[in-house]
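[agent] plan:
  1. take the single chain provided in the ticket
  2. run structure prediction with default settings
  3. attach structure tokens to the ticket
  4. add a short note for the reviewer (M.T.)
[agent] executing step 1
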Amino acid sequence: MADDTEFLFRKGDTFYTYDTIYVSDSYSDVYISSYEDGSDPSDDKPIIYIDTTDNLYNNIFYLSGDNCTVNDLALRSGGNYTEEDSSTEGYLYPSGINLSGVNGLVLDCDLSYFGVEAFRLTGSYNTIQGCTVTNVSRYGVYGSGPTGSALIGNYITDFESDHEEHVVRFQGSDYSYIAYNDFRANECKDNTQIRGDSTYAYVWNNQFDRVVGFNPQNSASEEYIHHCAFDSNISVARDYSSGPSYDYEGIALNLKAKNIVVRNNISYGYGKFLAMWTHDLVGAPEDIYIYNNTDITDQELSAFVNLSVDCDNVHIKNNIYHNQNTTSNSYADGFIYFVDAYYTDFSKLPVWTDYNIFLGEAWDDEDTQIVIRPEFTLAGWQTETGGAIHSIFADALVGETMDVDNVQDSLDNGFASLSASSAGVNAGYDRSRTTLFDFNGNKRTQNDIGAIKYER
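[agent] step 2 finished; step 3 output follows
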């Protein structure tokens, strides 16, 4: 093999390999793709099928060389990693593509029926774009210490085994870019996880379900996730018929991190849009900026945000929260819920939250309720702290009809959009200090509240 080598597979054909197709770090600029035979034309991507069943950690492609590209292929393995297959006597299905070099690209490929993961990223500045992943066992994408990884415009779904973990897991990653994807967790325990000592992850304009997290791996991990952004995503709570015993309508975004921006996001059907927790080793979340999000739910025992009492410098401004549930549970429903103790020190809270619009259709009266544990009406909170003086208990008059199987159609039909008579029109905190653009990427010309600005 030499640098600048092309491997082309004929469209419509199926090719079998028993072992990994390996490009070592001695070579670069290797291009692996398809071609069309003019005498026997086909629109079908060539299928590369790995039929080994004795090594769970085999890959179809292991690319250590720099500037390698895999394009327009369909990659297959024998099946999922199931409980019956996990013994030493059973089958261990291999994985898809490992990118361990620099500046690699996987473009417009279809991957299905793999073992541990469809993709593994261990190199730097590698991109996975426009790919479809179905029927995978544990991870759609697993990143272990990558720098500059990008996931753009991919569709990942159908996790079917006894060992599902996450749609995407980045462990100790820096400068990650995750955008324009549709990730569906199905039977996974959660959706996308940014873990380890990860920094500068920008998660933008994706469709999610279940929970997305910026967290250490576990309570024994002294890991610091910081300087990340969760921007202009939509999360919908889908009720899958099977899977782990995780509450599908629980939390959209989970934070045990510092220096995080959460803005212009939309969530539907969750018990909580956001939860922030103190971690035994990392400490409390701090420097969290929560701007212009819209949360619409029909869940009982619900709140916009669960907040640890130790959190510091958390700014919650220009958000909309509407609980459509008509069952009275006012003792547990509110805009903010302090999760671990009754709060007693209010000295730093006035700067935390203001210019928000919230409503619970089953709440007691127009003043109930901004804070739970202890319970405060909006008027009581304003009196006690001097804060939230621009917040409103009201119906924000945004579109509320969501079809979770047709999310984009729902958005196109006005879900989460402000109406002309909404109290959120030009009523928010200064956009130059929160966000200059909205969920759709439109420039904000006035200080509208919520994820989507009013279209004037």
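[agent] step 4 note for reviewer: The chain has a mean pLDDT of 86.
[agent] ticket updated
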